[in-house]
Design brief:
With about 130 residues, this protein is of the alpha/beta class. The protein has a single domain (about 10-125), classed as Response regulator (Rossmann fold, 3-Layer(aba) Sandwich). The protein contains 5 helices and 5 strands. A 5-stranded parallel β-sheet has the order 2-1-3-4-5, with helices on both faces. The longest helix is centred in the last third of the chain and has 14 residues, at about 115-125. The model has no long low-confidence stretch (mean pLDDT about 85).
Length: about 130
């Protein structure tokens, strides 16, 4: 199933360049073109202002701030943006906490194209 592309632009916020590159390549393979990357929340703020994304892949553990604080900021200022939390710690508590804070999806690292595709299709259905 092809995406209709209402999900673009997409922003990846992760401090690991390898993770950003990997996820970006997966998104390109899925047919997405408008993909932006940021290594921290400070640099992501400029991207949010200039080109508000429809979907954000957000690492929970960032060096400059906690991902859940960013999630709350995005929900307050960009309520139509769908946030997918990413973490290497997929504990039930972690997942439940992000859902309660308004995340639309959760992907445990390491992820693969199938997981990314599944969560994006789920978001597309509610978008």
């Amino acid at each position: 199933m092809e995406f209709v592309k209402p999900l673009e632009p997409i922003l990846i916020i992760d401090d690991s360049k390898e993770i950003r590159d990997y996820l970006s390549n997966i998104l390109i393979e899925l047919g997405f073109e408008e993909i932006f990357e940021s290594e921290n929340f400070e640099s992501a703020k400029a991207l949010l202002i200039d080109n508000p994304p429809n979907v954000i892949f957000l690492d929970i553990e960032l060096p400059d701030t906690d991902g859940t604080q960013i999630l709350e900021f995005i929900n307050d200022h960009y309520p139509n943006t769908h946030v997918i939390m990413c973490s290497g710690h997929n504990s039930l508590e972690n997942v439940q906490n992000t859902w309660e804070l308004g995340a639309k999806g959760f992907i445990a690292k390491p992820f693969n194209a199938k997981k990314v595709d599944t969560v994006l299709k789920r978001i597309e259905m509610i978008a």
